[in-house]
């Protein structure tokens, strides 16, 4: 449940962040954040349930921004291809 709450809470902020500083930077942040949470999961599980739930919430932040950053990267890539502009609206919007 903490994971889902974190993902949904970061969606709007992650989308604004991806549009502001770029999808590649946000995707890089998401991958590093998500990987760090994955590495910390066994340690948190050993410490107890509250720690594990906190780490899973942090993992949700990393995953939440990843999808938005990928959409931003695809949107910018498709803007240069006029013949697939209709595909752009199906994927991004």
TrEMBL record:
InterPro entries: MFS_Na/Anion_cotransporter, MFS_trans_sf. It is found in: Membrane. Keywords: Membrane, Transmembrane, Transmembrane helix. GO terms for cellular component: membrane. It is a multi-pass membrane protein. The keyword Transmembrane helix applies. It comes from the Eukaryota. Its main location: membrane. The chain crosses the membrane at residues 12-36, 48-70. This is Uncharacterized protein. It comes from Corchorus olitorius. The lineage of its organism: Eukaryota, Viridiplantae, Streptophyta, Embryophyta, Tracheophyta.
């Amino acid at each position: 449940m903490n994971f889902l709450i974190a993902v949904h809470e970061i969606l709007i902020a992650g989308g604004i962040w991806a549009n502001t500083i770029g999808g590649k930077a946000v995707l890089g942040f998401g991958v590093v954040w998500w990987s760090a949470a994955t590495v910390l999961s066994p340690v948190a599980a050993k410490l107890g349930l509250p720690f594990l739930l906190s780490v899973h919430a942090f993992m949700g932040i990393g995953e939440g921004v990843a999808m938005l950053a990928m959409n931003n990267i695809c949107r910018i890539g498709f803007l240069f291809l006029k013949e697939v502009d209709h595909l752009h609206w199906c994927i991004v919007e």
